[in-house]
Amino acid sequence: MRHVIALDVGGTGMKAALVGADGALLHQARRPTGRERGPDAVVAGILDFAAELRAHGVETLGEPAVAAGLAVPGIVEEATGVAAYSANLGWRDVPLRDLVGARLGVPAALGHDVRTGGLAEGRIGAGRGTDRFLFVALGTGIAGAIGLDGRVEAGAHGFAGEIGHVVVRPGGSPCPCGQHGCLERYASAAAVSEAWAAASGDPEADAADCAKAVMSGDPNAVRVWRQAVDALADGLVGALTLLDPRTLIIGGGLAEAGETLFAPLQDAVRQRVTFQKLPAIVPAALGDTAGCLGAGLLAWDLLDTTHGTEVTT
Predict the structure, then answer these.
(1) What value does the mean pLDDT take over residues 14-39?
(2) Cα–Cα distance between 165 and 180 in angstroms, integer?
(3) Is the pLDDT of residue 162 over 50?
(4) CA–CA gap between residue 147 and residue 116 (Å, rounded)
(5) Closest CA to 10 of 293, 308, 297, 291
(6) Are strands 75-77 and 151-153 parallel, antiparallel or unpaired?
(7) Which of 5, 183, 283, 292 would you call most buried, defined as having the most Cβ atoms within 10 angstroms of its Cβ?
């Protein structure tokens, strides 16, 4: 069966799949990234994992993969296939696309993890059929993917979609990026966890605990949650003004709060728009398979540059 290899490399774990032309996940596997062993060992682990997936495809599907796609964190130069920098993984200027392609003997594509997940959500997930979408992942940080007619815009230098570093509270909390008041310092899962731990007096409390306390009516939790939602709405309205997406897809750990997040967020965005057209605001649909599915789409796109391959889930 014709298939591609898809790898989604995270700071702690790697998710991988063999993906059919119809989007079917024919085989899935996971393993630790092993970042504690250093960047060279991480790269070696990726190459070994890819080779094992190729062998599995030959053994179980009767033929080797026809291409490979990888999604990685940090700064990614997609045009050249170079993983330029990752603080979590400690690498710099790794020609990962060429290394994987040489190891497997097939064409390979490299993408940024959030943009790759956004590609999958936009093309075959929550934004399927939408010509313009914005995908925003609310995790440890906040990042986005700008979708245009079935592709995701990387930008001239690979930074397109970095909505987490839009300043929403000038002069506010310092951010590791060097600015003050960045969106992700107020509305990421990590920021909500930090604020709720302080407000509740429980250093182990996290964003999920805060959401549960909101549902129970805890006034301190409601205050913390409201501050995060307001900051997020401010950032999103700025993005809507610039990009005018038809659909706004919200994913990441904070989105797992469901209507506890979406109901107040929709209201907050609605209150802030004036001339802007309000997009559909929807939860991501693919969960933690988005990165693998997106990496698979990158691989299939190498073979079908018109994006004509019909992919379903």
Answers:
(1) 93
(2) 9
(3) yes
(4) 11
(5) 291
(6) unpaired
(7) 5
Query: Quick one: tokens of 32?
Result: 């630790």
In terms of phi and psi (left: phi > 0; alpha: psi -120 to 50; beta: otherwise), the region of 276 is: beta
Helix-, strand-, coil-residue percentages of the chain, each rounded to 5? 45, 25, 35
Please give the sequence-ordered ranges of beta strands (E in DSSP) within the chain, or none if there are none. Answer: 3-9, 13-20, 25-32, 68-72, 75-77, 82-85, 92-94, 108-112, 132-138, 142-148, 151-153, 247-251, 280-283
How many Cβ atoms are within 10 Å of 284's Cβ, its own excluded? Answer: 23
pTM of the model: 0.89
CA atoms of 228 and 190, how far apart (whole Å): 11
In which residue are the tokens 């301190």 written? 220
Joined together, the tokens standing for residue 117 give: 């997940």
Query: CA 68, CA 17: separation in Å to the nearest integer?
Result: 10
Look up residue 219 and give its two tokens.
């006034």
Place of tokens 């991988």: 16
Give per-residue burial for 195-227: e unless 16+ CB within 10 Å, then b.
Answer: bbbebbeeeebbbbbbbebbeeebebbbebbeb
**DSSP assignments along 195-221, one per residue:** HHHHHHT-TT--HHHHHHHHHTT-HHH
Q: What is the mean pLDDT of residues 58-71?
A: 96
The burial class, CB within 10 Å (0-12 / 13-18 / 19+), for 273 is middle
pLDDT surpassing 50 at residue 10 = yes
Decide: 89 and 11 in contact? Cβ < 8 Å.
yes
Amino acid at 122: G
Q: How confident is the model at residue 305 (pLDDT cuts 50, 70, 90)?
A: low
Task: Give dist(CA 213, CA 205) in Å, integer.
Answer: 11
Domains of the chain: 3-117+288-303 (3.30.420.40), 126-284 (3.30.420.40)
Cβ neighbours around 108 below 10 Å, total: 26
Token readout for 82 is 């170079």
Could you tell me which of 55, 72, 73 has the C-alpha nearest to residue 64? 55
